[in-house]
Design brief:
This protein has 7 helices and 11 strands. The protein is of the alpha+beta class. The protein folds into 3 domains: 56 residues; 107 residues, no CATH class; 60 residues, no CATH class. The strands form 3 sheets. A 6-stranded antiparallel sheet has the order 4-3-2-1-8-9. A 3-stranded antiparallel sheet has the order 5-6-7. A two-stranded antiparallel sheet has the order 10-11. The longest helix is centred in the N-terminal third of the chain and has 24 residues. The radius of gyration is 21 Å and the shape is globular. The relative contact order is 0.13. The structure holds zinc ion (ZN).
Length: 251
C-alpha cells in the first residue's frame, strides 16, 4: 500500500504553530499595550493553523493506492475506485484566488488528478482529488516523492496490470527507500565525499558518495540515475508543466 500525503502542508502549518506565539511575545515586548488585543489576534491565527495542521496530518487528505483500489476522500466522503472500475484518469492544475482581509488577492495553484469511475451498473462518476500546492506528495514512511505526472504514471501501470501479484510488485518497487534506511545510508557518507544532486525524474534532493562512479548513482526515491543540476535545469526547460489531454477532457 502507498499512502501519499501533502507533506509540505503539515510542515508549513507546523512551523506556523511555533512562529505565532513567538510573534505575539515579540509584539507584546515592543508594544505592551497590544498584549490583550494582540493576544486575541494571535490566538485566532494559532487556532486556524492548528486546525489546518490537524487536517494535514490526520490523513483525511491522503491518497491511498493499493493492489486492489485507489482510495481518498472528497469533502469528508470516502471514495474507493477498484482498478477494474477505473475508466479514465489524468492530471491537471487549477488556480484559485484567496482574498486577504487587508485587500488584495493571492493566487494559489493546486495540482489534482481527475479519476472517472464506471460501476458495474453502468453509472459513471468523475472525481477531482487535490494532490498538492507544493509540486507533489510524499509516500508516508518512505523517501519517494510523487509529482502529479508520476502519480498518473503509477496509476497507469497499476490499471494496466493483469494480476494481483503484478500490482503488489509494482507497489513494492514504487515506495522508494524507507526513511530509516535513507537516514542510515546518508549518515555513512563522509562530508568531503558528499555530492548533492536533485533527481531529474522525481525532484528528490539527496547526497551521493562521490567515490562511486556517477553513472552508478541511484535515486532513493525512484531508483533512476539522478543526473547533474545543470542537466536537470536543461530538462525542466524542455519539458512542460504537469498536464495531460485526459485530465483536460474530464474537466
Ligand atoms: Zn528520483
Amino acid at each position: 500500500m502507498i499512502v501519499l500525503r501533502d507533506d509540505m502542508q503539515s510542515k508549513v502549518t507546523g512551523c506556523m504553530l511555533i512562529v505565532t506565539p513567538i510573534a505575539w511575545i515579540i509584539t507584546s515586548f515592543v508594544n505592551p499595550e497590544s498584549l490583550v488585543i494582540g493576544g486575541v489576534f494571535f490566538l485566532l491565527a494559532f487556532l486556524v493553523f492548528f486546525w489546518r495542521y490537524s487536517c494535514a496530518s490526520s490523513g483525511e487528505n491522503d491518497l491511498t493506492i493499493s493492489f486492489d483500489s485507489i482510495r481518498f476522500s472528497i469533502d469528508g466522503r470516502p471514495v474507493r475506485i477498484r482498478w477494474k472500475e477505473l475508466e479514465d484518469y489524468g492530471t491537471w492544475r487549477k488556480t484559485s484566488r484567496i482574498s486577504a482581509d487587508q485587500g488584495g488577492e493571492m493566487e494559489k495553484t493546486t495540482d489534482y488528478i481527475a479519476l472517472k469511475r464506471k460501476k458495474a451498473n453502468g453509472i459513471t462518476e468523475t472525481f477531482h482529488k487535490d494532490l498538492s500546492s507544493w509540486g507533489g506528495s510524499k509516500v508516508m514512511g518512505h523517501v519517494a516523492f510523487y509529482t502529479p505526472n508520476r502519480v498518473v504514471k503509477l496509476i497507469k501501470k497499476l490499471s494496466d496490470a493483469q494480476s494481483k501479484k503484478e500490482r503488489v510488485e509494482i507497489i513494492k518497487n514504487a515506495k522508494g527507500m524507507s526513511n530509516f534506511e535513507f537516514k542510515f545510508k546518508q549518515r555513512k557518507i563522509p562530508f568531503r565525499h558528499r555530492d548533492v544532486l536533485t533527481c531529474t525524474k522525481c525532484g528528490v534532493m539527496s547526497c551521493y558518495d562521490n567515490r562511486i562512479p556517477k553513472n552508478e548513482f541511484k535515486c532513493p526515491s525512484c531508483g533512476e540515475n539522478p543526473k547533474s543540476e545543470r542537466e536537470r535545469n536543461r530538462m525542466i526547460k524542455e519539458t512542460s508543466l504537469p498536464s495531460c489531454e485526459i485530465g483536460k477532457k474530464l474537466l
